[in-house]
Amino acid sequence: MSSYDHAIDWVRRETDSGALPAAVLGIATADGVQELVAFGASGERAASVGDHFPLFSVTKPIVAMTALRAVERGRLALTDPLSAAVPGFGAQRSDTVELRHLLSHSSGIGDPSLGSPLGLRADLLADGSEFGAGAAVRYSSLAFEGIAAMIEHATATPWQHAVTELVTDAGADGFTFDADCEPHPVFGAADVGLDYAAMQKLQHPGAGAYARAEDLLAIGRALLADDGTLLHPASVAALQRSRTDGLPVFSPAPGRPGEAWGLGFKLRQNSPGLLAGDGYGHSGWAGAEFWVYPEQGVCFTLLTNVMEPARFGVNIDRLHNAVVAGTR
Question: How, if at all, do strands 289-293 and 298-304 pair?
Fold first, then answer.
């Protein structure tokens, strides 16, 4: 019997109830993949452990780590201004938006529709300021268009190429922004006001990636190993330090009580529903989850495909706790 049986049972129950259409659960430690199971179906397509799923905002920490690589290599600094990479940005602002603000959702940049009809760069240039950089927290997927621009400006290569280099080093060769990977469809997009087809065309650096569970587990294992393969240990420590303690939170800002922001990662150090307080990772709008618990020595991913699963009673804290408690 696996020590993760309760976590597996949780996913089975959620798909059996219909709350989650299709789902793949993956759990890994530094020793390797411990569990990789699939349940449910997208219509007539049964879920398989090797399937691609849309990540939505689980894209963000991967792009954030790509920017941190450029910092490690002396090509970027956390205090570099976005305006250096995007001339014209902030023309109506009196402050300076820096890379660290973009990574921690404290830039003051708004969060327009993911399916932008004008294009992400146009949205970025047109965006005003909801508050001064570093003065508050406002979740912003559009801010990651700024991060992508800074990566391109610093590395003189398309930002997607820099991301590919990072994930390839981790062994995550299925991670992609190409919808030709035949990902599972997303259910309920219209219910939450999303033009999903329009979003897919953008290759959004804050929401547009697809991956298999094994890809995210490879990245999680590299973070657990902390051996410099993915990022230097100093970078891994830096991305786990809260950058938003004490800042007011502007709504809407997806999140749960007790969460803070590091560099591209959510930190769940003070979440009232969790047994462990060392988790860092990210959630996606369509239910994708990617979390690393360094003190427990475990990482996990849940890939699924329904918008805002909490609308159907899905409490993801239960899965967090079952994974943590199953780690021996």
Answer: antiparallel
